[in-house]
Design brief:
The protein has ten helices and nine strands. By secondary structure, the chain is α/β, with parallel strands linked by helices. The structure holds pantoate.
């Protein structure tokens, strides 16, 4: 496995492979790799001949007061996971390499950014969209892989790629969960054992929403109430939001009559956790 730090060298490597007809997969990450990232890499290896993992803690997607300073950074362990998973290139650039002096561009998808996560993390998605666009321009991958846990992010990137007619397929892969239901996330390691136990309420609340729908509840307000009621039973958790939304536009729904996404975000101590679950109601039922 090659570790590349320079965007220019990465682009040269990708261009050469592209000319040879090699199918390239990109897995963008911020490091602190875990089972969720490993599953994205494995998925990439199924459909691509060469896999690049980018590892960059992007300062532009952290708001002031967020965890940029303490975000886990461990290149050595990440490189070893990538090696084990058969990654071809690990791209680990510096801040100056990504945002050289004079960098003045930002990419935004306003209609998909301001709701839900955007209410709590104002410039987050602009930071994500900017860095992902930069990575896509550098690598020009055939496929790019994201986890479904960051649902709003995956919808926004799919929109961005379609709108800019980038020649990359966005592949959204299933959320990987711990056996007790907690969605795997780099931020889980901040949780104390007590807080980790409390964090389980998030997936429990979403499942309560899902079972309300399965029992025939169609009013989105009532499905949302079912989720909030469960979340509020956990004294260590604070609810940021629970939403019943259209899976493509992320607009809130009033009734659950077709494909729907249930989204939730809570805070446990200083840790913010997000999760989601898809609901499939046959149209008209
Ligand atoms: O999901 C993440 O880890 C980040 O938002 C991403 C896509 C790597 C952009 O920095």
């Amino acid at each position: 496995m090659r570790i590349i730090r320079s965007p220019r060298l990465l682009a040269q490597w990708a261009d050469r492979l592209g000319r040879e007809g090699v199918r390239i997969g990109l897995v963008p990450t911020m490091g602190a790799l875990h089972a969720g990232h490993a599953s994205l890499i494995r998925r990439a290896r199924l459909t691509c001949d060469a896999v690049v993992v980018s590892l960059y803690v992007n300062p532009r997607q952290f708001g002031s007061g967020e965890d940029l300073g303490r975000y886990p950074r461990r290149l050595r362990a990440d490189a070893s996971l990538c090696r084990q998973e058969g990654v071809d290139v690990l791209f680990a650039p510096s801040d100056e390499a990504i945002y050289p002096p004079g960098f003045a561009t930002s990419v935004s998808v306003p209609s998909l950014s301001w709701r839900w996560e955007g209410q709590f993390r104002r410039s987050h998605f602009e930071g994500v969209a900017t860095v992902v666009t930069k990575l896509l321009c550098l690598v020009r991958p055939d496929d790019v892989f994201f986890g479904r846990k960051d649902y709003q992010q995956s919808v926004l990137i799919s929109r961005l790629v379609a709108d800019l007619t980038l020649r990359t397929r966005v592949v959204v892969c299933p959320t990987i969960r711990e056996p007790d239901g907690l969605a795997v996330s780099s931020r889980n390691e901040y949780l104390s054992p007590r807080h980790r136990q409390a964090a389980l309420v998030l997936s429990r609340a979403l499942r309560a929403g899902l079972s309300a729908v399965r029992q025939g509840v169609r009013e989105a307000r009532l499905v949302r109430q079912a989720m909030v009621r469960v979340a509020r039973q956990e004294p260590l958790a604070r609810v940021d939001y629970f939403a019943v939304a259209d899976p493509d536009t992320l607009e809130p729904l009033t009734r659950v009559t077709g494909p729907t996404i249930l989204l939730g975000a809570i805070r446990v101590g200083r840790v913010r956790l997000i999760d989601n679950v898809a609901v499939r109601v046959p149209r008209g039922r």
